[in-house]
Structure formats: structure tokens, C-alpha cells
């Protein structure tokens, strides 16, 4: 096993972590840093359950090597504190089993930041990156729109 | 997590990247250039890709440009599809790229990675085939510039240790009327069935396809038949369908017969939208 010690900037803290070059960011943040909010789903970039933010853009952490994230600003669901989108998910019942929720929230959080005036087409395009097996899409869309309207 | 180990390098210059590749190749490490790196992970995890040395091109300045230089738009190979879409210098490329994978994944997938991908869709090459773009490639013998239509035969023909730096497209093609349509069998988010991209240059319609055969292509024969205005449109489409390269894909996304049915309608749509019918 070829391991190396790297520093990752996660949720505002510089964290030292030992990884193989072949470890994904998802594996590093869950297995090495104990940040289990990002969920392993398909591990193939299809489902979006593992979405985090990298430099304020959504990123499927199963599609990124931990070593690629050196020098980047990584935010996981644990790094969000009382954000409007978290409250909107509660207010709009935008989850059922909850497994996809951290990934959806991270994607929505970035969408609201990057496109505060997002129209329906943009919302659909961005949220198409995440899958909810409970099919709570209407409530999730409502949560995003609530935040956009209140801004 | 991948089931094999590799050394990871992030060179800052073209020369460093080339030297790293040659050294790793000499040491039998089967080096692999990556840009977005999504295929290293998705194919590596199911043992369809193996390497002992990964050379990540993302930090090389020449690969990150996106600007007009004289009469050309130059786009670097390591730019993410999202960045290319948000900038929107080349509307046909924006539209075609915006249908690749999904929005979040396109933040990781890069232009060079998609054009040189193992997955057969490689849709982002279509606009460049239509626009007679030039590819800028570097390798052990230096930098070379070639018309993409001379170097792209099913896939970009790269020599050992070579990689794509930039694609340059003349402005007149960037602003030409276009249409780009992706058809899926399932909803708006299913895997692609067929993508057609078309440009209208003067009265001539150019057409390139992905998802029909196990490789993307532009066929001059097909275009000549589609542009024969002495024939009714039905005959033009029928004759074009008889000159397609093979094989026609026949897989879980759609049978060969279904693909040809979809293509027939797509060609009608293209000719109608571009006013060539």
C-alpha cells in the first residue's frame, strides 16, 4: 500500500490525513475524518448521495481522488450550520428516508449561492444530478424555491 | 476507492508532464494521463482500467485557456464542461456539452477527458468535427497542430506519450446556425441513445453523430446526400441512412432498428430547423 500524508481543508479546518493515491475523497472524509454525512451510494457518479462542495461548487466525492482535493476548500454537510436550505428542507418535508438528503442539500446550497436568480430550467438541470429513491422531488424543488424567493 | 495502487503526479508544465510519462513508461508503470479523472475512478473500480502512474494535467496553464486569439477561439483541454457552459463562447459546444452526464459530474468532466474518453459517446467532439477545428497536441517530439478531421478516426489518434492541449476553432464556425439534439430512451436523465449535432455553413448542413455506432463520427458521404436539394427530403434522408458507417449499436439502451428509427426522425428535425428542407 502506497500511502501518503496530505492536508485537506475541510469545513474551515486544515486536517491531516493519511491516504492512498487511489482513495476517493468520499472514502477519506468518511473513513479517515469521520465525516459520515456524505453518503456512499452508487460509487459511480450517478446518484449524487456523496455530494459535497469544493470551492463552492457541487462535487460528487466518489468521483474525486482525495489527492486531487489538496488546496481546495471542501465543505461537507457537517460544515453547514443553520443555513436557509436546511430549514427549508424541514419546513417543506423535503425528505423521507433521508439517505439522499445531505447530497441534495449540498447541491441546493451551491445552486442558491451560484445562481440566486435560478429559473425552473436551471433548478431542474442542477437537481437532475441527485436521485431520491423515495421520490420526494416535488418537496425538494419547493424547498429550493422557498429559499430563492425569500432572498 | 480503487482496487489497485498508483503513484500520483501533478506536473505544472507540458515538459514536466511529458518527462514524467516517459520515465514511468520506461519503468513499466503503464502511465495514464488524466484531466477530470472520472474514467480512472469509474472504470478503475471495475478493473477496466489499470495504471501504476497517474499524471494529472489539471495544473498546466496551456491546458486551462479559453480565449479568442485572432480569428480563433482556443479552448484548453482541462477545462470542465461546466466552465465551458457558463462562459458560453461556442453555443453549439455549450448545448452539446450540457447534455453530457449530469450537472454536478460536468463540474469534474473536462473537454479533453470527454474527447479522449473510453466510453463511446464522446459527444463534445461533435462540434469540433463540424467546425473543422484544429487540435494542439504535445508529445515527446514537441507540439503539433493538426486538423481534427485528419486525426479523429473513431477516437483521437494520439501517439504514445502524447496528450491534447487545446482545440482551436475559427470564429465563423463558432457563430454559425446550429442544432444539437440528444435523445434518450428514458426521461430526461437516462443514458444517451443518440446525439446529433449540426452546423449550417452557407447553404450546406453538416451533421455529426454520437451513440449510433460505437464511436462518434462525421460522414462527408452522409452530408452530401442530405444536402442534395434536387431530391425530396424523404429520399435525402433514406439515402443518407443507407450510407451510415457500421456497426449500428444494438444494446440495452436501444436496438439497432430502434436507433435507426430515431435517427430518421432526428435527420428530418435537423433539416427542418436549419431551413434545409
TrEMBL record, chain A:
PROSITE patterns in the cross-refs: 2FE2S_FER_1, 2FE2S_FER_2
Pfam families hit by this protein: Fer2, Fer2_2
Protein's name according to its UniProt entry: Carbon-monoxide dehydrogenase small subunit
Organism: Peribacillus huizhouensis
Gene3D superfamilies to which the protein is assigned, alphabetical: 3.10.20.30, [2Fe-2S]-binding domain
EC number of the protein: 1.2.7.4
Entry GO MF terms: anaerobic carbon-monoxide dehydrogenase activity
Keywords for this protein: 2Fe-2S, Iron, Iron-sulfur, Metal-binding, Oxidoreductase
Keyword hit for Repeat: no
Enzyme superclass (EC): oxidoreductase
Domain 2Fe-2S ferredoxin-type: 4-80
UniProtKB/TrEMBL annotation, chain B:
Annotated ranges, domain FAD-binding PCMH-type: 1-174
Gene3D superfamilies: 3.30.465.10, CO dehydrogenase flavoprotein, C-terminal domain (3.30.390.50), Uridine Diphospho-n-acetylenolpyruvylglucosamine Reductase, domain 2 (3.30.43.10)
Keyword Oxidoreductase part of the UniProt annotation: yes
Top-rank taxon, per record: Bacteria
Keywords: FAD, Flavoprotein, Oxidoreductase
Family matches, as InterPro entries: CO_DH_flav_C, CO_DH_flav_C_dom_sf, Diverse_Substr_Oxidored, FAD-bd_PCMH, FAD-bd_PCMH-like_sf, FAD-bd_PCMH_sub1, FAD-bd_PCMH_sub2, Mopterin_DH_FAD-bd
PANTHER family referenced in this protein's UniProt entry, alphabetically: XANTHINE DEHYDROGENASE SUBUNIT C-RELATED
Name of the protein in its database record: CO/xanthine dehydrogenase FAD-binding subunit
